[in-house]
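USER: My hope is that you can spare some time for a protein that puzzles me. I am handing you a single protein, as its sequence and its fold in token form. Walk me, if you will, through where the backbone shape changes along the chain. The protein I mean follows directly.
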Amino acid sequence: MDVGSLLLFVALLVLCGLYVARPLLADPDEDLNPELANLQAERQRVLEALLELDADWEMGKVPEEIYQPQRQQLLAEGAAVLRALEKADLEQPAPVDTERDELEAMIAAYRKSNKKGARRKK
């Protein structure tokens, strides 16, 4: 094995190692609200439970007297979770987009300077 092949092998090994370790090296999302994440997980749980209950009822595994109360309970839980999600979403501050704000300011300044220049030419 010559030196070039060895260097190529080591380079590929390092690249593969970095690719595998990338999730471990990345910063976790600090903007993630744990309450919002819990509400979304609860919403997903209720939806899956409803789908499973409906499928079991259609296959005849669940009798009507059990199906209806459980379905109503799951629908009530889902509605409560959706209301909580809407409330939490409204309480979340809008993300600040500084790049966009800077760009908007630059555009406004450019337009203002063009209006002054157009007035001077007249």
